[in-house]
Structure formats: structure tokens, C-alpha cells
Amino acid sequence: MKSNISATEAARRFSDIINRVAYRDEEFVVERGGEAVCMIVPAGPRPFTLNNLADLLSTIPKPDPAFWDEVEALAKHQPNVPEPSW
Questions:
Q1: Is residue 7 scored above 80 in pLDDT?
Q2: Which of 2, 30, 44, 47 is deepest in the core (most CB within 10 A)?
Q3: Rounded CA gap, 34 and 56, in Å?
Q4: 21: left (phi over 0), alpha (psi -120 to 50) or beta
Q5: Over 80: is that where the pLDDT of 1 sits?
Q6: 35-54 per-residue burial string, b: 16 or more CB within 10 A, e: under 16
């Protein structure tokens, strides 16, 4: 979520803003005289948790039964992998 904040307010509440960026993934647009000057955003890639993965997986479409039939047919016709010599 992006919030607009004046440069004066950003200076007064800098520690709080940094904490909100770091721990809540919030973003701030810093303005001077009503004009956007810069943004304060999380640095680097955001952490990806198992909850994020579960949320992502719940949004993808489910395969239809024909897909699983095809996977099973392909699996039955795979060549045997030779045992390693070591």
C-alpha cells in the first residue's frame, strides 16, 4: 500500500516509517510542496513464505482429468534409467 507523506512529516517520523516499510511492506511517496520527490520502498526482493506459496497456488487453475490421464500414460512409457556404476 502506498501512502503519500510530506517531507517534513517523513523527517519527523522517519524511524516509524522505516519500521513500517521493513515489517509491513508499506511504501511511501515523499512529497515536497505537493509534488512527489521520492519513494521509500522495501529494498531487494521481499521474503517469500509458505503462506505466500499457498496463496499463489490457490489462484492457479486446476488441471482437468484429461491432463492427469495424459501424465499417467506418459509415466507408464518412460524408459528405465540404468543404475549408476558407482
A1: yes
A2: 30
A3: 37
A4: alpha
A5: no
A6: eeeeebeeeeeeeeeeeeee
Note the pLDDT tens digit of each residue in 24-79.
989 999 999 999 999 999 997 777 889 889 988 999 988 888 999 999 999 998 88
Three cell numbers written together for 12: 519527523
- Residue 50 identity: L
- Domains of the chain: which residue ranges? 2-76
Q: Report pTM.
A: 0.52
Tell me the CA distances in angstroms from 51 to 25, 41, 55, 57, one per residue in order: 15, 22, 6, 10
Q: Quote the pLDDT of residue 33.
A: 95
DSSP secondary structure string for all residues of the chain: -EEEEEHHHHHHTHHHHHHHHHHH--EEEEEETTEEEEEE---SPPP--HHHHHHHHTTSPPPPHHHHHHHHHHHHTPPPPPPP--
